[in-house]
Amino acid sequence: DGGITQSPKYLFRKEGQNVTLSCEQNLNHDAMYWYRQDPGQGLRLIYYSQIVNDFQKGDIAEGYSVSREKKESFPLTVTSAQKNPTAFYLCASSRGQVHNEQFFGPGTRLTVL
Amino acid sequence: DQQVKQNSPSLSVQEGRISILNCDYTNSMFDYFLWYKKYPAEGPTFLISISSIKDKNEDGRFTVFLNKSAKHLSLHIVPSQPGDSAVYFCAAKRGGGSQGNLIFGKGTKLSVKP
């Protein structure tokens, strides 16, 4: 089955710790994206990558970092510099940035205590 | 500055009736629009889309209408079913490259009552 996986589903961390969220896709998609969703808010773009070894900042990149060493994987690190890290994080992919439909993973709920 | 607005946070409809979800946008350069459906604690799933060269697109019970002059689109669900209860996000896209990222509205929570 092709799809996008995110792990874990729920993640708890202490304030001041960095944490890495996993995102893997086997759809052979070139483009991958990270969004965060807060209650009552739409999805806001954190980072995106159009191709392996390349990525760009989205609208709210401060306090986050990413890597794209493999086509299938786009991990997101939430650093201690992120002021409000508690949120629902969604990873998505698409065939390419000019292709319109993005397919989303199930999400990771990060809670920083 | 919100470029994509969904002004109704919630909508309640009786089963079997029509649900109409609305979306307004401010950027006339948007050329593609999408609707996503999202259940709690899950990722959004793509529902239906429309290109700016069209004014209507239909897929089963779902129809999206686009009024470019009013910068307005709407999603019609008919007949509505309890399983349609979810949050619906409108998204817009402008061309490719870095301009091709999706801009999402804040969502409308639809409740379909049996």
How do the helices and strands follow one another from N- to C-terminus of chain B? EEEEEEEEEEE
**Biggest interface pair, counts:** A-B, 28 and 26 residues
Enumerate how many helices of chain A there are, as a single number: 0
Outline the low-pLDDT stretches of chain A. Answer: none
Strand residue percentage of chain B: over 45%
Low-confidence stretches of chain B: none
Roughly what percent helix of chain A?
under 10%
SSE order of chain A in H/E notation? Answer: EEEEEEEEEEE
Structural class of chain A: mainly beta
Give the averaged pLDDT of chain B, no decimals. Answer: 93
Oligomer kind: heterodimer
Which strand-content bin applies to the residues of chain A? over 45%
Main sheet specs of chain A: 7 strands, mixed
Number of strands of chain B: 11
The total of helices of chain B stands at: 0
Rg from Cα of chain A = 13 Å
| Proportion of residues in helical segments of chain B | under 10%
Could you explain how this protein is built, in words?
Chain A has 113 residues and is mainly β. Chain A has strands spanning 4-7, 10-13, 19-25, 31-37, 43-51, 54-57, 64-66, 76-78, 87-94, 103-104, 108-112. In chain A, the strands form 2 sheets. In chain A, strands 2, 4, 5, 6, 9, 10 and 11 form a 7-stranded mixed sheet that branches. Chain A has a 4-stranded antiparallel sheet with strand order 1-3-8-7, with no helix packed on it. Chain A is globular, with a radius of gyration of 13 Å. Chain B has 114 residues and is mostly beta strands. Helix content of chain B is 0%, strand content 53%. Chain B has strands at residues 4-5, 10-14, 19-25, 32-38, 45-51, 56-59, 62-67, 72-77, 86-93, 103-104, 108-113. In chain B, strands 2, 4, 5, 9, 10 and 11 form a 6-stranded mixed sheet that branches. Chain B has a 5-stranded antiparallel sheet with strand order 1-3-8-7-6, with no helix packed on it. In chain B, strand 4 (32-38) and strand 5 form a beta hairpin. The radius of gyration of chain B is 14 Å and the shape is globular. Chain A binds chain B through residues 4, 6, 9, 33, 35, 40-45, 48, 56, 58, 88, 90, 92, 97-98, 100-107, 109, and chain B through 4, 6, 9, 32, 34, 36, 41-46, 49, 89, 93, 95-98, 100-102, 104-107.
